[in-house]
Every structure is written in C-alpha cells, then in structure tokens.
Amino acid sequence: MNIIKILAILSLLIIITRWSIALFNLITKHPKKGNLNKKEGEISVLVPARNEAHNLPILLNGLIKCDNTIGEILIYDDQSEDETASEVKIWARYDKRIRLIEGNVLPSGWLGKNHACHQLADQAKGKYLLYLDADVKVNQEAIDLALSRMKKDQLSLFSFFPIQEMRTPGEWMLVAQVNIILVSLLPMAIASFIPISMMVAANGQFMMFDSEIYRKYLFHKELRQTAVEDVAIAQHIKKKRLKLHTALAPEGLHCRMYSSYREALSGLSRSARFFFGGSMAMGWVYVFFSVLGWWPVMLSYPDWGLPFYLSLLVTMRIFVSLASHQPIIKNLIYLPLQQIGLVHLFIQATLQHINRKTTWKGRTI
C-alpha cells in the first residue's frame, strides 16, 4: 500500500469521525435545565478587566438585569490605560452590587489575567464564582442554566462557549476556527468521561466554579504562568477526577472576541496549540488533513472519493453552524478562505512558539 493510499484512508477516517462528533454535538448541544432552587447572593460575578472601557457597558447592562441570585459583581481593574475604572464607577451608581477593585502592580512570576482572577476570588463571597470576560453579553437564562447544572451534577466547573459574533471577513476566517475545531473534535456531553486529560475544553469567557473547590485548589495561583489558563484549569480538574462540564451557549450569551483579522491572528495564535493538548505537531496534523485531506482521497478513489469527501465536509460545516448559532451560508461561503486563515494561524503560532515570546495588551506573556 503506497503512501497516498494510506493518507486517503486516514483522511476518510478523520472526516467521518469529525462528521460524527459534529452531529453528536448538534444533537446534545444544550444541557437540560433541572429544577433550580435559587438562593439570594449565591453567585459572585468576577470580571478581570484591562483596557475594557469600551466593552464593559454591554456586559454590565446585561448583568444588572439579572436577579438577586447574583450577590456581587466585582471588576478588577488590571492597571488599565483607558477609562475602565471610571466606567465601573459610573455603573456602580446604578447597582450597588457592582464594585471596583483597583489592581496592584503585577507580581513577578504571574501572568496578568491569572493574577486578576486570583485576586477576584480572594474577595468574593458567593458559593459560586462566575468568571466572565469583559467582552461578553450575558443574560439570566445562561446564568440559570449554568447554575442548574452545577447543582444537579455537583460540578466543580461549568463552562459555556458563547456564541461568537463575527462582523468582518477577517473574523470569519479566523474566529470561526474555534467552533469548527471544538464542535468537530470534542464530544462535549461525554468529554469528562473520556480518560484522556487533553480531551476537555473550557472557555474563560464564561466559567462557573464551586467556590469551595476553587479555594481548595486555587487554580489560577496553581497555573499562574500558564497563558491559556482556561483549558489548563479544565485539564487540571479532570486529572484530579473532579467533575466538570462544557457546553455550547444558548441564545443570549454572546461574545465578540476580536474586531479584525490582525486582532484575531494575534489573539488566537497564543492558544492555537492548546486546542491540541499543547502539541504543535498535532496541530499541524489537523491543518494538513483539514486543508489537503481531499487530495489523497481524490487520487486514490477517482470515481467516488472527492464527492463523498466533500459531502461529508459540507454537512459537517452545516452541523457546526447549527450547533454554534452561526449562519450556514456564510460559513460555507467562507470555507475556502478559512482554510487559508487556518494555515496562517498555525504559521504564526509556530513562530511564536519557537521565539517563546508573545505580547498581549502591552505585556509579554
């Protein structure tokens, strides 16, 4: 058997597996909400913020509409160079739950977000700690659903992947990769039961912890120098045989991570290899079969190979779009450009990995 035939068989096995996982995630995309016995003040919302004055109004406008299950909304101003602190103070006049925490000088040996999250937890009073990024739009339904699953399944961590808002071609080329990878590679409803630590995901945009478990392990302190702390925490929790669950968000929980191709490339290249357990080699295997998987199939099975492969690819993208609340037609139109974006993303990620230096929000991480 020649190398082309071997690659063709591997390509078919991979696309069939990804198609099956995407369909599974579509069918099981939203966790069911159980009976929810809510208690006043049991949730502390924790928001690390560095130069987020432009994002905070949307987040806080959603939070102040939520009921008194949220006892406090703490925003840690991580030495922002914009009007973040002033924005928080303005909103604090409208809702007494909102409180600004002035950030300290970043200690040696810490990354900024990890330190901010640790400081927030240190001051929080709730039984459940809900970390939100400042660029998230949130509503009561999403919070209730997360709280319901935390209580029903006695979880240590519940994390949503918010619906990603993409408005420019550059965002569609790169930001869309997150859900394509997630939905077609990780069977989320059963991932916590798979005995492989890398087979897990979490998203720092929405992470709810049991405060007792968090204070026992102090995850952000434990992983103080880890750049992609959300995935690392999920892996840490899984290794400790604690219970966690990750799900795709319902309508009402949105996030616009980046506003351009350049921003998305800079941000996602920091975390690209962590989609694959920190292995750049595994990432490039994914890139090869995603971009060129059709080629050995077409050469080895000229009569039926290419139509069969492409039909699986297109329907898989439809499943991903439906599960992720993304427009199907747009995702299909951008498919060729997304392949180019994927290659560029991993070239950039590889260069950063080799240089061991990445800059984000004015800091080297």
Automatic annotation (TrEMBL):
Q: Which UniProt keywords apply?
A: Cell membrane, Glycosyltransferase, Membrane, Transferase, Transmembrane, Transmembrane helix
Under Gene Ontology molecular function, one entry of this record is: glycosyltransferase activity
Spell out where the chain crosses the membrane.
Answer: 172-201, 274-295, 301-320, 332-351
The Glycosyltransferase 2-like domain covers: 44-173
Pfam families attached to this UniProt entry = Glycos_transf_2
Where is this protein found?
Cell membrane
Q: What is this protein called?
A: Glycosyl transferase
Listed GO CC annotations: plasma membrane
